[in-house]
Amino acid sequence: MQNASGLTQLPKFIYGTTRLGDDSIDFDERVKIAHYAMESCSWFHVSDQYGSAISVLAEAFKQKPDAIPKMIFKVEGESIEELRDVIQRNIEPLGVKHMDIGQLCLRGELAEQYAQSGACYQDIEQLRSEGVIKQFVKEVFPWSSEVTYQALKAGHDEQLVDGYIFYLNPLQRFALNPLWDLIQQKDKAVIAMRTVCGNTPQALRDVPGAAWKEYIQQRAVDIAPLFESSGIKNWADFCVGYALAHSQVQATVGSSARRENIDALVNAAQAPTLIDDKILKKITALHQQWSDSLDQHAEPWSM
Fold first, then answer.
1. 165-212, pLDDT tens digit by residue?
2. Any idea what the CATH number is for the domain that residue 117 is in?
3. Considering the domain boundaries, does residue 88 fall inside one?
C-alpha cells in the first residue's frame, strides 16, 4: 500500500450525496442540485443506503452523461457474494462500469477475516483484478476500529487498501485513539467524512432537536467557544480547515441540498483556512477524551 500520497488524485472536497435521498425535497429539484454539484465537484460519495439518492443520480447522469463524476461507493456486507450484489445495485442504475473507489464496510465473518488476514483478502483483491473496483479504502466506526487496528498493526491490509475513511470533524473522530495514533504513525491516507457535522455548534448546542444525539449537543458546548475564539466567521471554513490541517487527510466529504452550502464547502476547500495550533490541540485533546469516555463503549450505530 502507498502512504498518505496514495489518494492524491482526490480533490480536497468530495460531494456527499446523502441529501439527494431526502424525499421531502421534490425529485426534480434534487436532480437539479445533483447537476449543480456536478458542475463544481469532480468526485461524489455514493451509497444505495441513502434513500432514493441512486435514482436521483441515475436521472442526473442520464441527462448529462458527459459530466458524470468519479465516485466513492459504500460497499457493505458479510460475504463476498453480498459485496458483489451491493456493487451491482449501485453501479448498474448509474450506467457506470466500475467503482473508482470502494469503501469497504465489512461485517460478520468478513470483518473477522480482515482482522486476521483471512480469505477475504484474496476475494476482495479479485474485484480489483476484474476491474470492478479500482481502489479500496477501509471504513472505520468506533465499533469497527479494533478490527481495522489489528489489520493495520500486523500489516495485513498493506497491499489491499489505499487509505481509511471515517467521520472526522470538530465534534467527531470515529477512529478510536489506538487506531488514530497508528494511522498517524504509519502516515496512512485518510478521507474525512461528515465535514460540518450537520449544523453550527451554536445551533447544535442551543436549538432543540438540532443535535440528533445527546452526545453531539454536549460536545457542541465545548466546541462552540473554540470556534468563536478562532475569529473564523464561517463554520464550513472552520471545519474544512480543521480536517485538512491533518497531513494524512486527502479530502473531506460533505453533503448538502442547498447550492449556497455546496459553494461554501467547495470554496473552503480551494483555499483552506489556517486554524490556530492552540485551538487544534484543544480539539485533539477533546477527541482523545471523548474516544476513551464514550466512543470506545458505543454500540453499533448508536452514534
1. 999 999 999 999 999 999 999 999 999 999 999 999 999 999 999 999
2. 3.20.20.100
3. yes
Parent domain of 128: 13-197+248-268
What grid cell was written down for 241? Answer: 480547515
pLDDT value of residue 9: 86
Residue pair 222/257 in contact by the 8 Å Cβ criterion:
no
Q: How many domains does one find in the chain?
A: 1
Q: Is residue 20 situated within a structural domain?
A: yes
Under a CB-based contact definition with an 8 Å cutoff, are residues 150 and 279 in contact? no
Residue type at position 138: K
Q: What is the pLDDT of residue 6?
A: 65
Which of these, 132, 151, 156, lies nearest to 140 by C-alpha position? 151
Question: In this structure, what DSSP letter does residue 143 have?
Answer: G
> If DSSP codes are grouped into helix, strand and coil, which group holds residue 172?
strand
Alpha helices in 41-162 (DSSP H): 53-63, 80-94, 108-116, 120-129, 145-154
What's the pLDDT score for residue 1? 36
Instruction: Say if CB 75 and CB 45 are below 8 A apart.
Output: no
Cβ density class 10-20: b for 16+ within 10 Å, e for less: bbbbbbbbbbb
How far apart are the C-alpha atoms of 296 and 151, rounded to whole Å?
18
Mean model confidence pLDDT for the chain: 96
At 2, the pLDDT band (50, 70, 90 cuts) reads: very low
- The number of beta carbons lying within 10 Å of the beta carbon of residue 205 is 20
- 230 close to 170: Cβ distance less than 8 angstroms: no
* Phi, psi for 106 (deg, rounded to 5): -95, 135
Answer whether 20's CB lies under 8 Å from 34's CB.
yes
Beta strands 172-173 and 164-169 are: antiparallel
Q: Are 67 and 36 in contact (CB under 8 A)?
A: no
